[in-house]
Amino acid sequence: MVLSTNLGYPRVGADRELKKAVEAYWKGASGLADLQKTAADLRMRHWNLQKKAGLNHIPSNDFSFYDHVLDMSALFGCVPARYKWDGAKVTPELYFAMARGNAQVSAMEMVKWFDTNYHYMVPEFAPGQTFKLSSSKIFDEYSEAKDAGIETRPVLLGPISYLMLGKYKGDGETPWGALWDAILPVYDEILGKLAALGAEWVQIDEPCLTTADWDGVENVYKTTYARLAQAAGSTRILLATYFEGLNQNMETTLNLPVDAIHVDLRRAPGQLDKVLETLPSDKILSLGVVDGRNIWKNNLSASLDVIEKAVAKLGKDRVWVAPSCSMLHSPNDLALEDKLDHQIKSWMAYATQKLDELATLAKGANEGRDAIKSALEASDKVAQDRKTSPRIHDAAVQKRMAAITPDMSQRKSSFDLRQKKQQEALGLPAYPTTSIGSFPQTDTIRKERAAYKKGTLPEADYLKAMKDEIAQVVQWQEEIGVDVLVHGEPERNDMVEYFGEQLAGFTFSKNGWVQSYGSRCVKPPIIYGDVSRPKPMTVEWSTYAQSLTDKPMKGMLTGPITILCWSFVRDDQPRSDTCKQIALAIRDEVQDLEKAGITIIQIDEPAIREGLPLRRQDWDSYLDWAVESFKIGTTGVEDTTQIHTHMCYSEFNDIIDSIGALDADVISIETSRSQMKLLDAFVAYKYPNEIGPGVWDIHSPRIPSQDEMAALLQKAAQVLDPSQIWVNPDCGLKTRGWAEVKPAMLHMVNAAKAMREKLRKAA
Ligand code: GLN
Ligand code: ZN
């Protein structure tokens, strides 16, 4: 029989119960028992939901108080020395200290989980690292479900991915061999215990397997899994891969001594034929056909085509239906969306709805299409609707897309010439000062915006409040002597949402929360149709701000790649097309700003680096369309209009060619925390355009001194031409308070003045 299975369920709860409970616990507003009760209730609710939907394999240990990779570190007792752990059990206090740090000790590093917007806590390995079973979470949760009459499939991250995702903190090369030798006995122990508890299946995730291309991949996986299979005894192993196809490791993976293998057929549908051909006859194939990372309904008949093909080759007993990856990356329950447009909602599915899709697909595979006739009809209708709906397909946008020509991504003149013209037009001093766009979003501003959105503050009052705010920050910037002013973005809630709300083709959910890290959830905009700009979005704000000063007022926009990366996107056209549609809208906005007399325009692209595909061989094509999109957005202006871009949290080494190809007149980046180390890529590349290396770490409440910032500028001046250098903070200041921003900005302006003085003396 074809089984319906799940790889993981969103843990935060439909009403973000876990977030609220964890934060209350952190604040001391509730005790550990309350937190544990909420957690247990959520787990039980989610297991029951899956049981009710009719799922045959339900995961456990997919729950986490903070992060599942941190859970693994707790499981192995992989606790960095700075936490002064006694080596007994990893307590909740210690666990949260590792997650978030506290007054005495810093948190563990956090980075993005593959190409998702989820962040995991990076395991840290010390010289002589040992591992020992130090948490009973995985066993407790299995037993908890079992006691409630639900047999679950415990999930754990595999040893190779766990080690690969960590960082060795000693000198020299990572001692892989020693780490392996140390960690495998703990896996043996875990699997042995699960077997003793009676677990029928265990799910071992090895997402790193899809991209691994180091020497000896095959050998390491083979040896490891032969050992784990032995340790698992009567418990059978599902090895799960996701986020990419098996690619070069297809043979290796499919021949590992495990009982079932999961493949992601949403990300890599093309691998199916080869997988079916290669899979040894003793193994079960888990088909990831329902997208675990998106919010669209599954096309059931298309999925059934895939499942039936697999069944024809393998037989029903060797085929499972599954989501492409854990549903951790999907919002919880669409039923709670009472404000969404009806038709758009009819195209969507959140995790709860995806469970039904999985069960329906398995039923269709087992009993034939007739058994799920009405579900298939409904699904076909949605597919047809999305193919033809005028709300999705906009002929005017299509026409513009077809008319994109190469000259639409070229400035009129080369940078040298533009630079001269801009110098003449703008008359800026050396080391010009500016900031990235936002100023503190004070409680007053937030309250005013919330009241306006709720309808309790009339529009005229709201506009006046924001304009007053702008007038104040303009005056203050003039007073302290900033060269290129910003209006402070008080009217923006979020740098993507603000634009999405004004663009056609976007909608917003009320409850579409997805965990980003720990208790933090994000609610990405939903791009459902062709994107266009009904009317100018920022021109009034920018021209108002410009009217208050003779200094240049910089206009700020979010770029097409970032808008794309931080939204739920359509699955019915390539991402590159959606990106170019957004780019055309941004192009119009840039041109309108220019027409309105704004001479400096910044297009923020903090997400360009994170948008990189997982496999290096896919990078070029992504970078090609990403660069083209940025240029479509920014090049439709006169030479005298100065285009800035801004990028934060990025390492540039891998993509510096493309950063150069963006041909922005000025780029500002985050460099202060790395003490200008991130500049290296620009130096090695001989980056020709102007650049503002951030001199103030805005993630910290600390106020840097003038000397400190001047020292960073001095460092930059040693490797760049002083005439290239701009002076700015690392990023926008919306999360900071005025008590920090006022002195720090003044210190920054004075640091720039000191640098100018030095330059004058040297001349
Ligand atoms: N212009 C935005 C701001 O200043 C940029 C934010 C970002 O790069 N993350 O807030
Ligand atoms: Zn930034």
Polypeptide structure, described:
The protein is an alpha/beta fold. It folds into 2 domains: 54-388, TIM Barrel, CATH 3.20.20; 416-762, TIM Barrel (Alpha-Beta Barrel), CATH 3.20.20. It contains 27 helices and 21 strands. The protein has an 8-stranded parallel sheet with strand order 1-12-11-10-9-8-6-2. Residues 436-438, 489, 495, 556, 604, 606, 646, 648, 731-732, 734 line the site of glutamine.
Give a brief outline of the structure:
With 763 residues, the chain is of the alpha/beta class. The protein folds into two domains: 54-388, TIM Barrel, CATH 3.20.20.210; 416-762, TIM Barrel, CATH 3.20.20.
Task: Give the secondary structure arrangement, pairings included.
Blueprint (H helix, E strand, L loop, with lengths): L2 E2 L12 H11 L4 H22 L4 E3 L7 H9 L15 H9 L9 E3 L6 E3 L2 E2 L11 H11 L4 E6 L1 H7 L1 E2 L7 H22 L3 E5 L11 H16 L3 E5 L9 H5 L5 E5 L7 H7 L5 E7 L9 H15 L4 E5 L18 H4 L5 H17 L5 H16 L6 H8 L12 H12 L16 H12 L4 H22 L16 H4 L3 E4 L6 E4 L2 E3 L3 E7 L6 H9 L6 E5 L1 H6 L9 H21 L4 E5 L14 H16 L7 E6 L8 H7 L3 E4 L10 H6 L4 E4 L12 H14 L18 H25 L1
Parallel strand pairs: 1-12, 2-6, 5-7, 6-8, 8-9, 9-10, 10-11, 11-12, 17-18, 18-19, 19-20, 20-21
Antiparallel strand pairs: 3-4, 13-16, 14-15
Helix pairs in contact: 1-2, 7-8, 11-13, 17-18, 22-23, 23-24, 26-27
The structure holds glutamine and zinc ion.
